[in-house]
Write a structure and sequence with these properties.
about 375 residues; alpha+beta; Rieske Iron-sulfur Protein; Naphthalene 1,2-dioxygenase Alpha Subunit, Chain A, domain 1; 2 domains; eight-stranded antiparallel β-sheet; four-stranded antiparallel β-sheet; about 20% helix; globular; VanA_C_cat; Rieske_2Fe-2S_sf; iron-sulfur; oxidoreductase; Cholesterol_7-desaturase
């Protein structure tokens, strides 16, 4: 009698579920789309979420606002236009749109009935980032806003990073959640082994905890400066000195490191934002907060070494997830055989919380419908 292997069982189970790489990001969350420093006053900035073109506008006074980045007249990007007061004026025929999306001026039309406006997106600015709510705007106020590492805590110094990776966002979640891939980083980290300490999960999150044991090789300088020197135990198993907790709380991901006393040493928050319509290009936005050492200015001295170290690690991860995407592209479906329970639970979470591709709204169908009346006066110069 033929025996069915666990691998065959897993393959059959995956065939009965949606292809994870065809599950789109759920737009009903707050997503970062730009750094605050990249949008100057009286300027526009073109950004994109899953193929939806958006223009961010920072007027001389008041908060940033976001519009669908197409003038309804000839579909020219509004991001090519100019900012006047609380409006952005199309570079082609000078149509002007206020922060409510309403068309408030057509220079050659007079003051009669104005044409339809453009779609608006709720905007929030925090932690040096500009967030938009790409989904149902009515849900924006009731949707929790993420905690952004330790950006408001003076005891920590925070590094910004925003790499673009040519892969589906789900590969990024899997990569960070599964610390069993440390073999990939052996040139940067030396020989270390991840020890799985347990997991927790709920309707919208999955969390895994690890500690690391050095098997051989020298401890990297940046790691030693942050966590302290790990003692050489002459081959004996190292005790748990730091606990690494990785959590995907849809759609965000965090990595927190605490010492043996439970004090927070490092706090990473990251979001993976789809850029293109097919969600094969991901713009990452990350905030990495490091606890300042007791020695004044030491963190500033080690900051370049930390940046070099984390960038080298990321480049190895970037190469591997892009190779995973290339393999998916070759066959057009997900052939991964996953055996690690945490990642299996993560895949279920991402499938459950995301939007199947065939049910997702089309990016080019973003409406240029009449906008509601503004809640504050809109003026144009």
């Amino acid at each position: 009698m033929n025996q069915i292997s666990p691998v065959q069982t897993d393959t059959a189970a995956m065939a009965a579920t949606p292809d994870l790489r065809r599950v789109n990001s759920n737009p009903d969350f707050w997503y970062p789309v730009a750094w605050s420093a990249d949008l100057r006053k009286n300027k526009t900035l073109a950004v994109s979420f899953a193929g939806i073109p958006m223009v961010l506008v920072r007027p001389e006074e008041g908060t940033v606002f976001a519009l669908f980045d197409r003038c309804p007249h000839r579909q020219v990007p509004l991001s090519k236009g100019t900012v006047n007061g609380q409006t952005v004026r199309c570079c082609y025929h000078g149509w002007a749109f206020g922060r409510s999306g309403r068309c408030i001026d057509v220079p050659y039309l007079g003051k009669g009935k104005m044409p339809n406006g453009v779609r608006t997106f709720p905007v929030r600015e925090a932690g040096g980032l500009i967030f938009v709510f790409p989904g149902d705007a009515a849900k924006a106020e009731s949707t929790p806003f993420p905690k952004l590492a330790q950006t408001d805590n003076p005891k920590y110094k925070t590094k910004h990073f925003s790499p673009r990776v040519n892969c589906h966002y789900t590969f990024m979640h899997e990569n960070l959640m599964d610390m069993n891939h440390q073999f990939l980083h052996r040139r940067q980290m030396g020989q270390i082994k991840a020890r799985f300490l347990g997991q927790d999960k709920g309707e919208d999150f999955i969390e895994a905890r690890y500690s690391f044991m050095r098997c051989a090789g020298q401890q990297p300088l940046a790691e030693r400066l942050i966590f302290g020197k790990h003692k050489d135990l002459n081959g004996k198993e190292q005790p748990v000195e730091e606990v690494v907790t990785i959590r995907t709380e849809y759609p965000y991901q965090t990595l927190r490191i605490t010492d043996k006393d439970g004090d927070l040493i490092m706090d990473l928050w990251t979001a993976y934002v789809p850029v293109d319509k097919d969600e094969r290009i991901t713009q990452s936005f990350g905030l990495l907060s490091i606890l300042r050492p007791q020695t004044p200015l030491l963190i500033d001295l080690i900051w370049p070494a930390l940046g070099w170290f984390t960038n080298r690690i990321f480049l190895e991860d970037k190469e591997i997830v892009e190779l995973e995407q290339a393999a998916w592209n070759e066959v057009g479906h997900d052939r991964n055989v996953e055996i690690f329970p945490v990642v299996k639970a993560l895949r279920e979470l991402l499938t459950r919380c995301g939007i199947p591709q065939d049910a997702a709204p089309q990016a080019d169908a973003a409406p240029a419908a009449p906008a509601p009346c503004p809640t504050e006066p809109e003026t144009t110069a």
